[in-house]
Amino acid sequence: MNSGYVLIFLMSLLLLSESVFVCGPNICHGVKCQVTECKEGETMLKGGWCKCCPVCNKILKEGEQCPQPSPFIGGPPPTIYCDEGLICTDGKCVAVPTQAPQSIKE
Description:
Residues 1-19 form the signal peptide. Keywords: Signal. InterPro entries: Ser_Fungal_Prot_Inhib_sf. This protein is of the alpha+beta class. The protein has one helix spanning 3-19, and strands at residues 42-47, 53-60, 80-82, 86-89, 92-95. It is extended. The protein has a single domain, classed as Lipase, subunit A (Ribbon). The chain is built from 1 helix and 5 strands. A 3-stranded mixed β-sheet has the order 1-2-3, with no helix packed on it.
């Protein structure tokens, strides 16, 4: 079999598998969530595949080590995030660069 056909076949399988996890409008109806108590330093946010149930998430501050995003599609949603205004760069939470206002030339 030609390698091009194999690639097309594998890409098709990937797209089909991803479409299975689409969250519909009533996907959370009837979902029973576990009662969860978060540890110190964690925040409860909606989580999981379709964000139906609350999940404890660790919110990292600037300079703290953060997990690099996986290069692979799939896997469980993350439960560790950099705080608002921060992004994970080279394994650390750093401030989002802001652009200086540009002067208006007339």
